[in-house]
Amino acid sequence: MSDLANCPQCNSEYTYQDGTLLICPECGYEWSEESSADVADSSDEIRDANGNVLQDGDTVTVIKDLKVKGSSLVVKVGTKVKNIRLVGGDHDIDCKIDGIGAMKLKSQFVKKV
Q1: Helix or strand or coil: residue 100?
Q2: InterPro entries annotated for this entry (predicted)?
Q3: Nearest alpha carbon to residue 113 among 61, 76, 72
């Protein structure tokens, strides 16, 4: 394959260069080569949809309607989630949502308040 860095957003290996930017054709994410070195160093950080670093105890807001798997419930846009806990894996936020209960969220669907 190529010697270009994988996409920091979705980890796709199919990135390509366009001028000074690297572009991921799968998720559409664009970044500069200089920032890819920074991303490699901070790969253990969990970031929200806007790129802000999340920490345990933060308050976040849901940015998209999310269907709750195995239920007819929906977490609506703008739902505020307090006191999050960060965990590894695909769903990297553990939280409790009022009216729904304990659940896991993906950091790409929240923004820090």
Answers
A1: coil
A2: YjdM, YjdM_C, YjdM_N
A3: 61
Spatial separation of the C-alpha atoms in residues 87 and 93, rounded to whole Å: 6
- pLDDT (tens digit, 9 = 90+) per residue, 77-99? 999 999 999 998 889 999 999 99
- Of 91, 94, 73, the closest CA to residue 82 belongs to 94
DSSP symbol at 71:
S
Tell me the pairing of strands 66-67 and 21-23: unpaired
DSSP assignment string, 55-66? -TT--EEE-S-E
The reported pTM is: 0.62
pLDDT in tens, 24-44: 888 888 888 765 555 444 567
Neighbouring residues of 68: CB distance < 8 A, sequence distance ≥ 6: 74, 75, 100, 103
- What's the rounded Cα separation, in Å, for the pair 22 and 28? 10
Domains and CATH numbers, the chain: 1-39 (2.20.25.10), 59-112 (2.30.30.40)
